[in-house]
Amino acid sequence: LLKQPAPDLCLSCHTDMAEHIATAPTPHGALSTERSCLNCHNPHATDFARQLNAKPIDLCMQCHNKEIVSNDRVLRNMEAFLEANPDHHGPIRTGDCAACHNPHGSEFISLLYKSYPKRFYQPFEVESYGLCFNCHEQSLVHDPNTQTLTGFRNGDKNLHFTHVNRERKGRTCRACHDVHGSTHPKHIADFVPFGRWDMPIDYEKLDQGGRCSPGCHEPRSYDRSAPPEAK
What we know:
Layout lengths: L7 H6 L1 H9 L32 H6 L6 E3 L2 E3 L2 H7 L2 E2 L1 H4 L45 H4 L10 E2 L2 E2 H6 L16 E2 L8 E4 L2 E4 L3 E3 L2 E4 L7 E4 L8
């Protein structure tokens, strides 16, 4: 007995959201499939904020529990991935996918709220890391030396600065980390995408540092207390 179908009825009142959805370059498929807004929201009442049908992360996993073909990409089975990779990123530990993703659509890739580097290599610009710096301090990649900002250092040499803060071929976050989770501390990935190749990182955690031997350089280690000589 509705006067209009969803989403038209919903958006007749939620006009700001209607404009946002209509103009977002990256749309969310949930709004154009099956029950549209009702895939996630109950229009009468629920036990959850924003009249969601379930806790946010549980709601997301009702669809992201399988591979999803989206344009020219295949989105992985996120539920299975998170189960197999228990070192989760902070927002996932708190069950808040919407801390990073806008479920109604976005101007950025992967429905992200702010900018995030698309490529493995990229000249460093603060603006490219808007999403990361929403939580992480910019000094993490601005200060060449530190004793406090990061454990990824050789003595006091800040290896985040060394890798990321470059005019050419700066390594982006995706060069080492999986932003959803991994089996290693700090979400360090087993493999990272490098063109069409899943490049192994071969990371090993040590008492005062670590060691890796990825495809981009020979095996190297770092030590916060007794730094190996830099090469």
